[in-house]
Amino acid sequence: MKRNIPQEILPLKALQEFTPARIGLGRVGTSIPLKQSLEFKLAHAHARDAVYSELDINSLTDLLKLFGLPVLHLQSRVGYREQYLQRPDMGRRLNKESIDLLQQGYYVETDIAVIIVDGLSATAVNKNSLELLQVLIPQLTAAGFKLTPISLVEQGRVAIGDDIGHGLKAKLSLILIGERPGLSSADSLGVYLTYGPKPGLTDEARNCVSNIRPGGLSYAEATKKIFYLISEAFKRKSSGVMLKDNAGLLES
């Protein structure tokens, strides 16, 4: 028997082709249908799992050898996951051991520090970071940018890239981080770039490219945006509110 769709729902059905958002679900009495209700609960469970997921350090370390760069293992001041969620400030700074490790390296000034951080979804990092870097790093090196060792950071927030970029004497920090999971995207990767990284910067100093994943912004499209922003940041010697993504305007 064909299910009757409420008239007020019909205009929304066509929109489902363009978005994974929960629209036009229909209803059973005063509730949404059972299938959609169960899908919502499953998505919520995936989001919670992503928040408590962990970086696959060993696998990522082995795979990152592909780029011929040293890999540094760093840690924020956070000791455990519940503390990470309750104290964002501690996730923004390196712990003493990590600071000492950077200071012992005697790094010379270079261009870009590539930093991989678990953030609020290590699942997103485990799934997407290597695939993105396989497209992005060859383009950066072909353009003549010199890269620092790659940093793998546990229990970190976006601003921890300021400590790391400064410690590695990089002109620009490039942070790949797991974004806050949504109910339709628990595996979304974000990329933040900051020109002139140093402790104490705030969010207006950064640019962000978000929703990088197979179901969102593709690795190729993300690379185009990131490379454009990096190139402009070096030209202007600034980032954040002083740097706009005008790449689309240039192409039109």
Automatic annotation (TrEMBL):
Cofactors, names only: adenosylcob(III)alamin
Binding site residues for adenosylcob(III)alamin: V158, E179, C208
GO MF terms, alphabetically ordered: ethanolamine ammonia-lyase activity
Pathway: Amine and polyamine degradation; ethanolamine degradation
Entry superkingdom: Bacteria
Lyase recorded as keyword: yes
Subcellular locations according to the entry: Bacterial microcompartment
Reactions catalysed: ethanolamine = acetaldehyde + NH4(+)
Task performed by this protein: Catalyzes the deamination of various vicinal amino-alcohols to oxo compounds. Allows this organism to utilize ethanolamine as the sole source of nitrogen and carbon in the presence of external vitamin B12.
HAMAP family in the record: EutC
Subunit structure: The basic unit is a heterodimer which dimerizes to form tetramers. The heterotetramers trimerize; 6 large subunits form a core ring with 6 small subunits projecting outwards.
Name of the protein in question: Ethanolamine ammonia-lyase small subunit
Gene name, Swiss-Prot/TrEMBL: eutC
